[in-house]
Amino acid sequence: MIFYFSGTGNTRWAAETLTQATGERLLFIPDEMKGECKYELQEGERLGFCFPVHGWQPPHIVRAFISKATFLVKANTFVFALVTCGDSIGRTMELLNKDLGKKGLKASSLYSLIMPESYVCLPFMYTDTPEREDEKISQASKDLETIGKEITDRKANIVRTTRGLTPWTFTHVIGAYFNAKMITDKKFSVDADLCIHCGKCEKVCPTGDVKLTDTLPQWQHDGSCTNCLACYHHCPKHAINYGSITRKRGQYFFGHAAD
């Protein structure tokens, strides 16, 4: 059983790859949040969590899901976690295991997978060049082959993550501010002269925060936005912006080159 969250598709691809390797069920966290969130694992079933790093922390929707969920596991259930990131993850896994610990669980094997960058809402943040995208995905494919074998074989206590030079500062100072103050849909806007009302932004939003109206897409301002930027990156006309900073930034979602 693998639970995942993904906005621009990096983590979805990684989770689907692991599902193919392990034969585990794949469950999308936003869909699961609509239900009771009670899970009984069968003998031999693995429990995995896959998600992108948001501000060197787990996304708030992942933390909310774990808080809500009940996991009925066996004594020997193998628990693992894989996160995707543009570079480093700080102390993301420590926060994840702190949340899991409240449920009597611990992910023993931990992995971070470097994938193309998609967060572009800060002055120093840009999408990767096409060449760098290809390099990252190529290396990630090789890494996933190894990771998939290790998870299939239930190899415990493997920690293969890139935490960065100052992980505590990134997670508990910069990341804490980011997740408390900068996860909002209030800065999204639409260029009316560019929008073609295709509805892609509504379709790709993982939490249902974007609604296409008779005029323009509208964000609900109900706290559901995770700032994943799926709406921004999938817009075929680059009509969606976050503040003013993304107007000259690139777009990325997994598989876009073949779209």
List the topology elements.
Elements: E1 2-4, H1 10-22, E2 26-28, H2 29-32, E3 38-40, E4 47-52, H3 60-68, E5 70-72, E6 79-85, H4 92-101, E7 109-114, H5 130-152, E8 159-160, H6 167-181, E9 188-190, H7 200-204, E10 210-212, E11 217-219, H8 230-234, E12 240-242
Parallel strand pairs: 1-2, 1-4, 3-5, 4-6, 6-7, 7-8
Antiparallel strand pairs: 9-12, 10-11
Helix pairs in contact: 1-5
Explain this structure.
The protein is built from eight helices and twelve strands. With 259 residues, it is α/β, with parallel strands linked by helices. Strands 2-1-4-6-7-8 form a six-stranded parallel beta sheet. The chain has a two-stranded parallel ribbon with strand order 3-5. It has a two-stranded antiparallel ribbon with strand order 9-12. Helix 1 runs parallel beside helix 5 (130-152). The longest helix is centred in the middle third of the chain and has 23 residues, at 130-152. The model has no long low-confidence stretch (mean pLDDT 95).
